[in-house]
Every structure is written in structure tokens, then in C-alpha cells.
TrEMBL record:
Keywords: Kelch repeat, Repeat. PANTHER family: KELCH PROTEIN, KELCH-LIKE PROTEIN 18. This is Kelch 18. It comes from Paramuricea clavata (Red gorgonian). It comes from the Eukaryota.
Length: 366
């Protein structure tokens, strides 16, 4: 007869292991590694670091002389982070709830990238996405830089989309004027940049005027490569140069020949890129519960009941273009981009149409 198996429940003390290890770290009991940052030393346990961080697991397995000693020391000076950020990261590793804020967020990203803490990296990225705002232009551009540097693809795409949508408004800030020529070009060459030709001309002129000695030599090339001159008139361009006190060189003067431009009395042609003035409105409908959202300006908020024929939306501050999203009554409630629709600058009545059985409406004011 086979022996009878008897199951035993797990040790009740095992759920308290992390709590006990946190106490051990605070009291420096059984610690076998020191992380040195500036004038502070942080004591930890190799087994915990190896269990959470793939980087430390690989380092302890490597057989390096500095990690084969009984008590290990790792100097984090090369990370250029503050001791307070290291302390927060260790709290995270030991299972504590941490606070991510604008003072430590970029340093935590550096540490997460170094220790290969993907979960912390995602938490930091989510926090930075929530902080994107036209009221924080420095944060927007810096977030894009660090997202690219540390390979945060989702954060980079989200930040890039936000900046492209709000670029004209962000161009009025000092943070924009500090962009390098490579950064400026990376935006100008994007098809998603929500600016028209006149706005592009203004943006390039303003950027060049901020540092004439080093940037005026780039002015002609940028205007030549990123402006569709046939959509502008020479008068508009000269006015812009006068506004920013720019002196066109011979190359730029050649560009200003009348044959390259649209005559003042000729309407804008089809080559014109319609800008959204750096703003867009997203409207989502679920029968009688429509909501509106303006990125960086107004959070999701309910609007008036869905009209049968037409109505008005007073809360959407959008110029020239609105972006309309629609949602049907499917159980998955997925969002579907419907169209980018042109509007005049004056307030229009909401319009309802049928698209695959679902209604959509949109409006804008100047």
C-alpha cells in the first residue's frame, strides 16, 4: 500500500520575511554589501539585491575580485544621483511603498536603468506621463530626452505625441529656445507636428533669434528644408524677420525670390499644412454620456447630453482643427480614431452624423 501523503500549509512566518529583512537592513544585521553614495553608506543584503536586480545577480556570479570578498562595497558615484534617491530605491527593493515626485523621478530612472529594475522603470514612466503639461515645458522636453537615453519606448512615444500636439504653445517658452538644432529638426521633420507653415516659419525664426551668433547660419537651411514656401507670401516672411530682428544672408535673400512664394492675392493651396494651434480636443461618446478631453489643458469632463440634431460645446478651446474620436457600444469599449476635421475659428454648432451606426459630434471656438 502506498504511503499516505500529508500536506502541510506554508510557514506563517514566511509572509513576514520582507518586513523582517527591512528591520535587518535598518539595524545593519546580517548585511554583507555596502552601497556608497557621496558621504553616505547604505547597507543591504546580497541575496535581496540579487533576487530583485538582474544586474547584481550577474555581478555576484561574475567572479570579480571585488565581489568575492566577504563584505562587498559598491561605489555609486558614477551614477551622479543623490543619497536620498538611493535610499528610496532600496526601500522599493525591500518592498516598501515609496513616493515618486518631481525631485527624485529622474534619479530613480537612472537607478532603475542601472539595476535593471523594469518595474520601477515603468512606475517612473507612468508618473512622468501623468505630469506632462504645457505648464511644465522644461519637464516635457527633459522627459523626452531621458526617455530616449534610457530606452523607455512607451514614455518616449507618449511624450513625443504630447509635444507634437502642443508644439506651437510650447514654442513660446524658454525651454523651447534652449533646444539644440538636432532636437528642433527632430520635431520639424515629423508628420505629426501640429503646426501650419506660418507657425513653422515663426518657430524657426524665434529659435534662431534667441542665439543669433550660433544659429543664424542654420536659419536658411532650416527654412529651406522644413517650410513649404509656396504656401506663404514674401510679405509674411519679411514681417516675421523684422519682428525678430533677423538679418537674412545672401542664401536667404535668394530664397525670397517671388517665384518661390505664393502671391499675396492667391488663396492658400493644397500644400498648406493646417495646424491645430498646438491644441486638440478629443470627444468620446457612449450614447448619453459624452465626455471631452483637451490634452494638457482640461481633464476628462462630462459635457451636455447628446443632442438629437445639434447643439454647442462651450468648454472646448480649439482653433482651426479638432480631433474627433468615437466609440460604439461594443463591450470592449475600444477607442477608434475617426478623423481630423477642419473647422473655422468661430464657434460652430455640434454636428451629428452616422458612421457605422455610431454618432459623432465635435465643435471648436477660437
Amino acid at each position: 500500500m502506498a504511503s499516505k501523503m500529508h500536506g502541510v500549509k506554508k510557514c506563517s512566518s514566511s509572509v513576514e520575511v520582507l518586513s523582517v529583512l527591512r528591520d535587518f537592513r535598518r539595524t545593519k544585521k546580517f548585511c554583507d554589501i555596502t552601497l556608497k553614495c557621496g558621504e553616505r553608506n547604505f547597507y543591504a543584503h546580497c541575496c535581496i539585491l540579487a533576487a530583485v536586480s538582474p544586474f547584481y545577480l550577474a555581478m555576484f556570479r561574475s567572479g570579480m575580485s571585488e565581489v568575492n570578498c566577504e563584505f562587498k562595497t559598491v561605489d555609486l558615484a558614477f551614477l551622479s544621483v543623490s543619497p536620498s534617491a538611493v535610499s528610496v530605491a532600496l526601500d522599493y527593493i525591500y518592498g516598501e511603498v515609496i513616493e515618486i515626485n518631481l525631485e527624485n523621478v529622474f534619479e530613480l530612472l537612472v537607478i532603475a536603468d542601472y539595476m535593471l529594475l523594469n518595474e520601477l522603470k515603468n512606475d517612473v514612466s507612468n508618473y512622468l506621463c501623468e505630469c506632462l503639461s504645457v505648464e511644465k515645458p522644461d519637464l516635457c522636453f527633459e522627459t523626452r530626452r531621458v526617455a530616449e537615453l534610457y530606452g523607455c519606448k512607451g514614455l518616449y512615444e507618449a511624450t513625443n505625441s504630447f509635444i507634437n500636439a502642443m508644439f506651437y504653445r510650447l514654442s513660446h517658452t524658454s525651454a523651447f529656445l534652449e533646444l539644440s538644432v538636432a532636437e528642433l529638426e527632430s520635431f520639424l521633420e515629423s508628420d505629426d507636428l501640429s503646426t501650419n507653415e506660418r507657425e513653422r516659419f515663426e518657430i524657426i525664426s524665434k529659435w534662431a533669434a534667441n542665439s543669433r551668433e550660433s544659429r543664424e547660419m542654420e536659419l536658411g537651411r532650416l527654412l529651406n528644408e522644413y517650410i513649404r514656401r509656396r504656401t506663404l507670401s514674401p510679405r509674411e516672411c519679411r514681417q516675421m524677420f523684422d519682428r525678430y530682428e533677423l538679418l537674412p544672408n545672401l542664401f536667404i535673400l535668394d530664397m525670397f525670390e517671388e517665384r518661390f512664394f505664393r502671391p499675396d492675392n492667391v488663396p492658400i493651396n493644397k500644400m498648406h499644412r493646417w495646424g491645430r494651434q498646438g491644441q486638440e480636443v478629443i470627444l468620446v461618446f457612449d450614447n448619453d454620456k459624452p465626455q471631452a478631453y483637451i490634452p494638457g489643458l482640461i481633464p476628462w469632463h462630462p459635457i451636455m447630453p447628446m443632442p438629437e440634431t445639434h447643439g454647442t460645446i462651450q468648454s472646448c478651446d480649439v482653433k482651426q482643427f479638432g480631433v474627433c474620436y468615437w466609440r460604439d457600444n461594443r463591450p470592449d469599449n475600444k477607442f477608434n480614431r475617426l478623423a481630423i476635421l477642419p473647422f473655422p475659428k468661430l464657434l460652430e454648432n455640434c454636428r451629428t452624423n452616422a458612421e457605422n451606426g455610431s454618432k459623432f459630434w465635435c465643435s471648436c471656438i477660437s
